[in-house]
Amino acid sequence: LQLDHIARYLEEEYEFDGGYLEVCREADRLRPLIREALIEELLENSDMSSEEIGEIIEDQIDEGL
After folding, report:
1. SS3 content of the chain, % helix, strand, coil (to 5)
2. What is the pLDDT of residues 8-38, one digit of tens each?
């Protein structure tokens, strides 16, 4: 459920020439990569809050772009 934050964050923080469709394509590309990193984080710290998960997602996006 938290992975939906990817598209929202991309749309808020980055500009895409192709508009919302390009945002969706980029979110689809990033989702499996971020999902894997997020699972690793959750295995280490299973009591993370929604805010912490959102921050991890944002950090992963910022590091990858």
Report:
1. 80, 0, 20
2. 999 999 999 999 999 999 999 999 999 999 9
Calpha distance 58→62 (Å, rounded): 6
Give the CA count within 13 Å in the CB-facing half-sphere of 46. Answer: 1
The DSSP 8-state label assigned to residue 1 in this structure reads -
In this structure, are residues 59 and 37 in contact, taking their beta carbons and an 8 Å threshold? no
Per-residue b/e over 2-22, b at no fewer than 16 CB within 10 Å?
Answer: beebbbebbbeeeeeeeeeee
Q: How far apart are the first and last CA of the chain?
A: 22
The residue length of the chain stands at: 65
Q: Which two tokens stand for residue 14?
A: 């980055």
Q: pTM of the full predicted structure?
A: 0.85
